[in-house]
Structure formats: C-alpha cells, structure tokens
Amino acid sequence: MPSKAPTGKKLVIVESPAKSKTIAKYLGEGFIVEASIGHIRDLPQPSELPAELKKTSVGKFAVDVDHDFKPYYVVSPDKKKKVAELKAQLKGADALYLATDGDREGEAIAWHLLEVLKPKVPVYRMTFGEITKEAIHRAMDNLRDVDQDLVDAQETRRVLDRLYGYEISPVLWRKVARGLSAGRVQSVVTRMVVDRERERMAFKAASYWDLTGQFGTDAATASSFKAKLASVDGSKVASGRDFNDDGELTARGVVHLNQELALSLASGLQEAEFRVRSVDTKPYTRRPTAPFTTSTLQQEAGRKLRFSSKSTMQVAQRLYENGYITYMRTDSNALSNEAITAARRQASELYGPEYVPASPRVYSGKAANAQEAHEAIRPAGDSFRTPAQVAKQLSGDEFRLYELIWKRTVSSQMADAKGSTATIRLGAIATDGRDAEFSASGTVITFPGFLAAYEEGKDESRGDDDSDEARRLPNVAKDDILTAADITAVGHETSPPPRFTEASLTAELEKKGIGRPSTYASTISTIQDRGYVRKQGSALVPSWIAFSVVRLLEQHFHDYVDYDFTADMEADLDKIANGQEAGPSWLKHFYFGADAKPGLLSIVNNLGEIDAREINSIPITDGITLRVGKFGPYLESSVPSVDPKTGEVVESARANVPEDLAPDELTAAKAVELMETAAPEERVLGEDPHTGHTVVAKNGRYGAYVTEIIPEMTEEQLASLPVEYYKNGKPKPPKKPVKAKPRTGSLFASMTVDSVTLDEALQLMSLPRVVGQDAEGTPITVQNGRFGPYLKKGTDSRSIGSEEEIFTITLEQALEIYSQPKQRGARAAVPPLAEFGPDPVSEKNIVVKEGRFGPYITDGVTNITVPRSTSVEELTREQAVELLAEKRAKGPVKRKPAARKAPARKAAAKK
C-alpha cells in the first residue's frame, strides 16, 4: 500500500468532464480534477503503423504475435492535446490520483495514463461506486495501486477482439459482402437472433379448441366468474403447451379437441346442470425482486420505459456522473449496509413499519460469470432522495429512470406480498354423456407488501395465458349448483417462439454467460448499425445477409459462434482478472493452438474452398431459392416459365424481396406470389440509332431506369489496339481496356418498365439537357433530382413544375424563372410523411418530415434523422419514440465557440 501523499497541489484524473465537476465540489482546495475524456490511446490501424513495423510480427494486427502478443499502442490524434494538458498539470503536482471507474476498462484507462504521463510523484488509485461526498471521502481513505490483473484481463480482451475481427472479417468480405464485420460477441449475438428466426421459419402451427363459460350462483349472479374447460371424461384437454414446434401433440393422456368435437360439446352443455366439485385455497406469497444490475436495468427500462439498451446506459451514465445513482456497470445485486439501512428507513417512512421485514434482505448474483466487484445500481448516498425531491433537477428521461431505480431499490427491502389463491373445479354431464370439468383460479392480495412500491415487468411468452392475478372468486362450496351462460367453443393456434426484444435478448445473453453486461448495449447497437438486425416495433428481426454471415461462420468457424465456447472464453478472461491465468499464454493457445487443438490462425489458413453461391443461397420451396446478392436479397426460380406477354421461355426468373418482409414471412406461398407478380427485370427497347447500342429498361433496387448495353470488345478490336514497348524493345503485355460507362436515366413517376418507349429512354439518357446560356454566357441546364426537376446555373438551382417540363422548358422560360428573387422558405406547407401521436415525454405530436438531408422525426422540440436502414413506411411509433428518447439522452450538441484571432501586432515605429 502506498504511503499517504504529501500535502500541496494534487492532480486527480477521471474519464469525463461531468464527473470531474461533481468530484471537484467534494474534494475542495488543493485538488485539481481533470478529465481524460475516455481512453487516451489505443491500437492503431495496421496501415497507420510506422513503415519499419509493417513487415514485422506487429504489422498484421498492431500486436506483436511473436512476442507475448504485446500490443503496440499509440496516443489517439484527437487526444494529443489532452495528454499535453495533463502533463502540464502534473508538473506542478505533488501527487497523482487516478480516479477512473473501478471496472476493468477503468483500470485499463488508469494504466494507460500511468504509462503515458510517466509521473515522478506518488501515484494513487482511487475508486468509488457513487459520486457523493461520503463516498469520495471513503475512497480517499482506501487508496491502492493499479490492479495489474484487471489491466491484463482488459488488454487480453482488446487483443483478442483484434485477432478475431481482423482474421475472420476478411473472409466475410470475400464470400458475402464488403464492409461486413465479425466480432467475438457480436457474431454470437447475431447468431442468436438468426437462430430464433430459423425456429419461427420452421414452426408449424397446430390447431386446438377448448370451451369457456360464465358461471355463478342463483343468488349472486353479479359475482359470476369465467371458467375454462380443463378435462373431458377425466382426461386433460390439450392446450398450446402440449404441442411441439412441428405441430405434433407430444403430451400423453390428453384430449385433443377439434372444432367439430368442441362445438358439439358446447351444444351438449347448454342445458346441463353444473355443480362445484372442489374448492382448493392455498396461501400466496411473493417476494420482491433484487436491486438492479446492468443487465436487469436494461431489461426493465426496455419493458417499462420503452428505452433501448443504448439509451438506458446513456441516461444512467449522466445520473451517475451527476451524483444521483451508483455506478451503472455492475454484475452485483448486493447492497452496502448503508444502502440497506437507507432503503429500510425510507420504506418505513413512506409505507409504514409493517411494510419492512424484521431482518434485512441479502441478495447474491446468480448469472453465469457474475462479478461481485460493485454494488447494485441504486440511488446514491447514505440516505436516498425520493423522486419528488429530484424531479426539478432532472430531464424527463433522467427522472423516469431514477424513479425506476429508486422504486426497485426500496422495494427490494420491503416485506413479501401476502394473499391466497383459490381454485374452483366445476362440472356437468353433456347430452352425449361426456363429462366436462371446468376450472377457474384467482389470487387475492390481502397485504401488498413490496407491491405497494414496485412490480417487475414481463417479456412476451408462449403458450396459453393462464394468469389469474388479482381475481376474486365467489364464496362457493362443494356440490353447490351453478348457473351457466355463454358456453362457447374457442379455437386456438399454437404460436411460434417470440422474437427477441432488446430486453429478452439481454436476459438470454446473461443467462448463457455470453459477453459482459456492461457491453450488451453497445453490442446490440452494433448489430443493428451493421445491418444484421433491424427493429420491427420492439422485436429484433435479422436481415438475410445475417443468415449468410451466420451460415458461413457456423460451417467454417463453428467454435467461434458456439454459445458454450464463447461463455467459456468469458470465464477464462475472469480467471485472468483474478490472477489465476496469464493473458499472453492464453492468447497463444487461442491463436496458435495447443494440445493438438488448432488455433484461429490454423483454421483461417486451412479453410479450403468456400462456395460463396451456396453460402448466400437459402431454399424457400421447390424450385425457388432466395439469394443474397450485391444489391440485396432476391428470389430466383430454377423452374423454366413462359413470359405471358412475349411467349418466350424464361430459364431463370427473378423477383426482388421487399425490404420490410421479415424472413419468417417469406413462406412458400409468398415466394410463389412474389415470383408471379414480379415486374420484368429487363425489357429491350431497341437500338440507339447513333451508337448502335441496345437500350433496355430495368427494375433496380432503387427504382426503374433505362440504360444502354455496351458490347465487349471483339478479339479483332483488341488486336488492333496500339502496342506499348519496354525500353529494351520488348512488347508490354496488352492492358485490359477501360470499360466505358453506360449512360443511364431514372424513369419518371409516370413511366414503367412496360410502358417506356425507346424515344423516351434516349431522352432520359441524354440528361442533363442544356437549355441555353444567360447574357454572361453561363450555361443553364435542366435535370431531375432527389427533390424533383430543377434548373441549374452555376451554383444557383431553381425548382420547376413537373418532370415533363424537363424536355419542354425553353431558354426564355428559364431566364424568366431566374429573373425572379429566389424563394427561401416561402413554399406552401408540405404535409408530414407520417404522424405518430403525442410523445410520452414532451406530450407534443410526433411527425416525420422531409428535410434537406433526408426524412427526420420531430416532436417540435427534438429532431432525429430516420436511420438509413429504416424506411419511412416501416417506421413504427415505438421506434420513433425510442429514437427521440435516445437523442434526448445524448443532450444538446455542444458547439465549440469560434476561435478568435489575436489582433495583428503593429510593427514598432522606426525612430
């Protein structure tokens, strides 16, 4: 343990400016608190390495794979100024306090600062779980050194991710598409979403029926209750849980009612006499849920507040840095003694002493690879501020998240909810002799306990919803006669596994021990940014390109997308953090292999031939295959068909797949429909009389267009090209001729591939059209653009009325338009592209408008561009609300003031 720092100027370094301002208030005079603004150095791109290193063992990854995988770090260009500032502050300091976050990443930031600043004064590592006066003072009493084991674990993780991504991503570029990426956790998460969609695609629904009825006593019809058919002739009636995903009944000894049997039974019970057969009452007890971890906070904020994981962490970060909650990256759900006391005291004050149990509740983590390094996420301080006390200090999203954390923390130390659950069984004999027994259950809460403060949300589940929470049943006894009404046969179909939401995916990742909860938000955001997954409402839907990527990884890098293998890697990294294993030796086994087990390098070098066409093909039905192409997914039929217009036999027909069609919605019937209704891919219009080139109309991914087909050069033409010679007189090999770029033109809105003529196509390909010149000789052109047809003179553009005017507008008309003052913002109001009703935070109407840089969402206060991966047509209210929430969470864009130039110094007057 280092000795206490001498008094005098002391430099404290944290990660963020917001954190530095809050801490500075508690440390007082003598301390200078500065922010590093995150990491100050990282691994460079291999292309940025010095020339002398590019051909060494460092050159491929910026990691020396031959010497203990030593990383080659450089100070980031945008951090050089910050490093210079920190060094200047350190010169006059008597001590350096590294007060970055207490997790592995924070420990690594502290180590990097130590390595770069090279202090010659005493150095102290200072950590705290909350930014309060008490916590900061406790941290000053518990200083330590930088934990090298935690640093080793984080550096190993960084190098591991570089090796994984840089070895596997290029394979995806060659065999699927450029720009794709593979990642140790992101690829596994993508596989989980794809696997769930595969289950939905393979799912076969089963049909089953049951009966419901309304029952009551003669004397108390107002207290009637609903019951559901439970058994027929003593055998349980089949429900959704009794079928597998192939639509097969798997349960034994159950009655599978079809429509005919259910309707006949309902008819036979209309006049039957129902009696109570049993009444069973049991005590009901429900315990509170544990305080939040990073994972459970993301899940619950997603369910209750509709926050994305990314938005949740951004808001939580601000609450932590400003001293409202404890550190938000934690796997522990334990509370400190001070926090337990604070929660119990507040529960007693707000709800009464009877709502607090005699003994404090103690929680321990159950997740795979859980770390107990931090406390649970809770309100900061040794006494908690109620939501009402902080309401005026927080933004809308900050308040909602703080309230959620406060409720969960206080309720975790409250008493159990108590009540009773009653189950009534009643039955009758139908006219055909069948014995039908119905069942109803209800729970009555007699003491709410923790439910007075908080109740946890639930994710979507499969099967029948038999929840009977808070339903009071009438007081009946065995053999009581009941009246029956509305006995109805009800048909059902089994449902496929629900798609993951961000909340349920986070829960599944934690359950399997994949990745760190602190990285879940960024990982889920990454797979969406990469185009592997999109949101449909709150559900996560994989793209077809994700299917290709996962298929290639499963076939050729199986272990690296295996759930258990990935979880084991996480456990190994935990061992490194605990000092039980060394990072370099673990990386050596991972990359080079050991004990006859190949490493990543050997697998990449021995991939063999990968059939890209097979990887990017997914059979949909007989003769129809989905292919993932350069410009998106499309269907291809291998069954020859006859063009109904020309009568020609088409060997291989194609059809585009709508971008908003989810993979499980592309059924065999839908594929056939798309093939039958597909517009022709290409229609020959004729020859250009001037060039002799064939002109065709096509349907492209971004709309219909016309283009010319430029034929390849013949052997005679190639032979006639001039020959170039070396200086020694020998002829150079013939160069491949540069292929001429064909002229193209988008069809007008009034045109289609079937209707456009050769003359119209030639006109479209001739654009832009020169209308003439103005008095100064500046040419005026007319063309079509994203926002409609327009004139252009130099940099001055003016809109014109319609697309047809492109070919008819005269120079005089163009000059008349330019003679008028340019209209800015005086156009008629354009109706919004979409409307989604009031925003839950601002309570103002959410609309989508067309802007200069594309469509954007606004509530009149906050604006956010519609993501490129989402069309306006498929944008949902939930997505709009979430995008606005994320933008608010980031806060306003801070613009740097324009730098003022110092006035030029006057030259001294000559004497």
Please give the share of residues in helix. 25-40%
First-residue to last-residue Cα separation: 67 Å
Number of separate strands: 38
Q: Taking strands numbered 1, 2, ... along the chain, how are they ordered across the largest sheet?
A: 9-10-15-14-13-16
Number of helices: 25
Mean pLDDT level: 87
Low-pLDDT regions: 1-5, 367-373, 895-911
The secondary structure category is: alpha+beta
Percent of residues in β-strands: 15-25%
Shape: globular
Major sheet: 6 strands, antiparallel, barrel
Query: Over the alpha carbons, how many angstroms does the gyration radius reach?
Result: 35 Å
Structural topology:
Blueprint: E1 10-14, H1 17-27, E2 31-35, E3 41-42, H2 51-54, E4 63-64, E5 70-71, E6 74-75, H3 80-91, E7 95-98, H4 104-117, E8 123-125, H5 133-140, H6 148-175, H7 186-202, E9 207-217, E10 220-232, E11 235-237, E12 254-255, H8 259-268, E13 274-286, H9 294-304, H10 309-321, H11 337-351, H12 387-390, H13 396-411, E14 417-429, E15 435-447, E16 481-493, H14 502-512, H15 517-529, E17 533-536, E18 539-542, H16 544-556, H17 563-577, H18 583-592, E19 593-594, E20 597-598, H19 600-605, H20 612-615, E21 617-621, E22 624-629, E23 632-637, E24 641-642, E25 649-650, E26 653-656, H21 668-677, E27 682-687, E28 694-700, E29 703-709, H22 715-719, E30 744-746, H23 758-765, E31 769-773, E32 779-785, E33 788-793, E34 796-799, H24 811-819, E35 834-838, E36 845-851, E37 854-858, E38 863-865, H25 877-890
Parallel strand pairs: 1-2, 1-7, 7-8, 11-12
Antiparallel strand pairs: 3-6, 4-5, 9-10, 9-16, 10-11, 10-15, 13-14, 13-16, 14-15, 17-18, 19-20, 21-22, 22-23, 23-26, 24-25, 27-28, 28-29, 29-30, 31-32, 32-33, 33-34, 35-36, 36-37, 37-38
Helix pairs in contact: 4-6, 6-17, 6-18, 7-15, 7-16, 9-10, 9-14, 10-13, 10-15, 10-25, 14-15
